[in-house]
């Protein structure tokens, strides 16, 4: 049975992107610092075609996570800075020719667009009929594996509010951003039923793992 | 040189007390769960006059913290549920005859009241002339030791905004409260200059330790 899983990095003050996001600063001011724990890991370097990298707890967590994911769903703002119509469709994501997903990615949008096949197994599909339709298509594409929701905040909150999230991996980093996009906001109360089944940390990040209670 | 130090427990979604605080529910709905990591430790049991308890990381952190503190500053709402005038002064805090502070505690209030001496070395002093005056008196009382600010949120934020905090121990627990008092809010931007010098965790809590950069 395909599960829906978050893996989201959050600053200790609760933000998953910094303030003033823009085309030049897609993660907002200071937001890149959220992900500094990822860059040195061997599994991230493999995903981006580089050698070397650190092993250890953070690498293990990232590797185990990636191995189980067969498709992704993301918000349109996570795919790019363009609002409204897609225009000349020259925007192909933030990640260059070979995005680090290596799997189908379903982008939530109000504006239709043909699928966009990138190198390395990532194809962006643009879904205009809502979060449940996106999940259905992503679950089909994932097969035996799970569906990941990497963000952004609004997309994560929509799936949480709808009760469609089965597992959450929250990676809390010591960064204090002071502003930006909060993960835990606009939720009409507490996301209910999640049980923390693991808490471990490296000097760079604390990994909180939650599953929906049975 | 006396330093000002936070030790504050926060839910992973950013709250240091739950919603709907009241005389019956001083930590708000679900708020007591924030402190569950503390209760089983040997050092907490010692503070409350009980034997036994767990040793290990959480106990060590709490013990090291307590050893260095010579005085506390807290907000009036942390001292009690009474608003406005103190009335018959029968309210003596939430903690019974022997509060777990064992040191002078300076309570920020707009309403004067005589000092209140409790058992075990805790005396509550009521300070009506602001956070800087309270800090001056607490620093005098602390001698060679440091001044702690246990909360609540508004008091913590006032000292952060004024740039008067030297060190922060944030204890982040896996609890998701969904509402309540946020620590990182009303701060007019990022509390600046803090560097995370340690991140360690037990299965119950991740301890983030910050010091003000030199």
How would you describe the overall organization of this protein?
2 copies of one chain form a homodimer. Chain A is an alpha/beta fold. The first copy, chain A, contains 5 helices and 11 strands. In chain A, strands 5-6-4-3-7-1-8-11-10 form a 9-stranded mixed beta sheet, sandwiched between helices. The first copy, chain A, is globular. The mean pLDDT of chain A is 93. At the A-B interface, strand 10 and strand 11 of A face strand 10 and strand 11 of B.
Based on Cα principal axes, name the global outline of chain A: globular
Q: Strand portion of chain A, in percent?
A: 25-35%
Structural class category of chain A: alpha/beta
- Helical amount of chain A: 10-25%
Q: Determine Rg of chain A (CA atoms, Å).
A: 16 Å
Could you tell me which chain pair has the largest interface and how many residues each side has? A-B, 32 and 31 residues
Mean pLDDT rating of chain A:
93
Quaternary state of this entry equals: homodimer
| Terminus-to-terminus distance of chain A | 14 Å
Task: Identify low-pLDDT runs of chain A.
Answer: none
Strand order of the largest sheet of chain A: 5-6-4-3-7-1-8-11-10
CATH first level of chain A? Alpha Beta
Count of separate structural domains of chain A: 1
CATH fold naming of chain A: Dihydrofolate Reductase, subunit A
CATH superfamily of chain A: Dihydrofolate Reductase, subunit A
